[in-house]
# Entry
Amino acid sequence: MLHFNERSWVAGPSHYEKNIQNTPVGTSVFQVNATDPDQGVGGSVLFSFQPPTTFFAIDGARGTVTVIRQLDYETTTAYQLTVNATDQDKTRPLSSLANLAILITDVQDMNPIFTNLPYSTNLEENVPVVRTNFSISSFVTVHL
Ligand SMILES: [Ca+2]
# Structure
């Protein structure tokens, strides 16, 4: 019986979207799933990014997307990736594409900064201990 490679992979949506925060390198952030009803190599799917990206890697067999470079919201707020899935049919490999948008969520990563350093004040002798002479203020820089 002859078997033809008839179908490319079938994913759920053709567009994925994922929100992540400043995620350490090596973290898995997304899972692409695909099914190919063909049997044998014609139904065995390999994933890749097209074109490749230096910030994310995808496990060819499993479809797991991993961070491979430090992400910084201040530099890039979103990545538009295209996932290619190709079956392994030797004579007529079929492939499909899906979009994957990875949105970087800002996390506050700045420390409070004291202003008007150094602090000093003059005290008179015999100041009652409950008296407050000055207050220390700080502010947080917020990057939007
Ligand atoms: Ca197939």
